[in-house]
């Protein structure tokens, strides 16, 4: 069976999936997640391939390492075949790690040197990679970067209009959610047209312009804080805003970071970062919630229109991520602004979150797709593993 274990570690959560090669593609055997790591109410849940919960436990998991130990114990108890390799999702690898690759001592050292590009994510990834190395020294490990997909962007997109010495220090547009975009491009297969925009709308949210399967522009930049407003992140601001906050409101770097990443976006505007709650509040007349949704949808529509300019037209628009997949309200509000591009939704299809939600008369096809980042990591790892054997 030769399973590959995929690990996606966040600041206080760890998702995992065990994949086997079946009929030329990766097939999920089990998946699970450990949440609220670092609290005494951490939960570990494991689901089988049909999505049935086969294990649940609530206890104290102090660290990512402890969560992984617990996952290994449960995997043994469930008599799951042990993995032959481990693939890690790494959000940011800095300027020198931008292709999916096997993790060597040198790669790990380079990743550690890039810590200032993602001060929360990189240490968590390094900790779990080192732990796997200690516990399963025989297993090859691979790093898959969210930035890798965007390496095809032209210089006119990845360069910022600031002096070159800062570019030399790594200040450039990297772009994120690359594993999600790659998964959608893979799943579109033969149905992938030339000019595509994908809107990945989850808690983190970004859009990518994709020409003939390759990223040519994206809304996030040096870090995942940029682009459209998100659940708790501000997205793009006039650069004068942080300067003003530093000078006039006396915010230091940490306070600014917390503000821009954790206390801005939908949460700051509408009082909650949960789109379902915002929609409920807006429907019952809460004007702040309505404004938050309006700002969010307007920004997405503006980004799609600008990407249509980048692509020289638009054949397909894909909505993905928790909001993209489930919020017919957001999709309608975005698409209603884009009629001039030839986008027309079919209301019944949109309300049902059907696979294709555009009207038959629409010049642009509009789809709703689920993204499978872990499966995409398993695909990359299988290829890398074969190249190494
Ligand atoms: P993450 O980026 O953390 O993986 P998700 O992709 O799961 O997040 O997206 C989370 C967002 O999706 C939340 O804002 C949540 O409210 C929203 N969401 C999930 N289901 C629905 C729904 N049925 N209607 C509207 N929004 C939804």
UniProtKB/TrEMBL annotation:
The keyword Magnesium applies. ATP binds at residues 15, 200-204, 274-276, 322-326. Mg(2+) binds at residues 8, 373. Substrate binds at residue 89. It is found in: Cytoplasm. Catalyzes the formation of acetyl phosphate from acetate and ATP. Can also catalyze the reverse reaction. Belongs to the acetokinase family. NCBIfam families: ackA. This is Acetate kinase. The lineage of its organism: Bacteria, Pseudomonadati, Acidobacteriota, Terriglobia, Terriglobales.
């Amino acid at each position: 069976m030769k399973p590959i274990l995929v690990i996606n570690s966040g600041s206080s959560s760890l998702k995992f999936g065990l994949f086997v090669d079946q009929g030329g593609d990766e097939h999920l055997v089990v998946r699970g997640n450990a949440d609220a790591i670092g609290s005494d109410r951490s939960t570990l849940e494991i689901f089988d391939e049909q999505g049935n919960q086969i294990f649940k436990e609530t206890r104290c998991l102090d660290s990512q390492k402890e969560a992984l130990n617990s996952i290994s114990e449960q995997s043994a108890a469930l008599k799951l075949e042990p993995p032959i390799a481990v693939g890690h999702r790494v959000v940011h690898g800095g300027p020198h790690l931008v292709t999916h690759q096997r993790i060597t001592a040198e790669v790990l050292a380079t990743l550690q040197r890039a810590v200032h590009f993602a001060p929360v994510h990189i240490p968590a990834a390094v900790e779990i990679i080192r732990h796997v190395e200690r516990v399963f020294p025989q297993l090859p490990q691979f790093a898959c970067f969210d930035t890798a997909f965007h390496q095809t962007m032209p210089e006119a997109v990845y360069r910022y209009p600031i002096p070159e010495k800062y570019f030399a220090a790594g200040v450039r547009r990297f772009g994120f959610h690359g594993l999600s975009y790659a998964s959608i491009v893979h799943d579109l297969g033969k149905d992938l047209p030339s000019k595509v925009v994908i809107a990945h709308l989850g808690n983190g949210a970004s859009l990518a312009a994709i020409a003939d399967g390759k990223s040519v522009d994206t809304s996030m930049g040096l870090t995942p804080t940029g682009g459209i407003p998100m659940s708790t992140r501000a997205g793009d601001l006039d650069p004068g805003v942080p300067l003003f906050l530093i000078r006039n409101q006396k915010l230091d770097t940490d306070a600014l970071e917390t503000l821009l990443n954790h206390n801005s976006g939908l949460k700051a505007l509408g009082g909650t970062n949960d789109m379902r709650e915002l929609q409920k509040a807006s429907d019952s007349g809460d004007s702040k919630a309505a404004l938050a949704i309006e700002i969010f949808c307007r920004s997405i529509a503006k980004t799609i229109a600008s990407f249509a300019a980048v692509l020289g037209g638009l054949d397909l628009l894909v909505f993905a991520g928790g909001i993209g997949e489930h919020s017919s309200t957001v999709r309608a509000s975005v698409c209603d602004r884009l009629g001039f591009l030839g986008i027309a939704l079919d209301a019944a299809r949109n309300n049902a979150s059907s696979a294709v939600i555009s009207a038959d008369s629409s010049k642009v096809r509009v789809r709703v797709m689920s993204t499978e980042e872990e499966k995409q990591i398993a695909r990359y790892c299988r290829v890398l593993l074969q190249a190494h054997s």
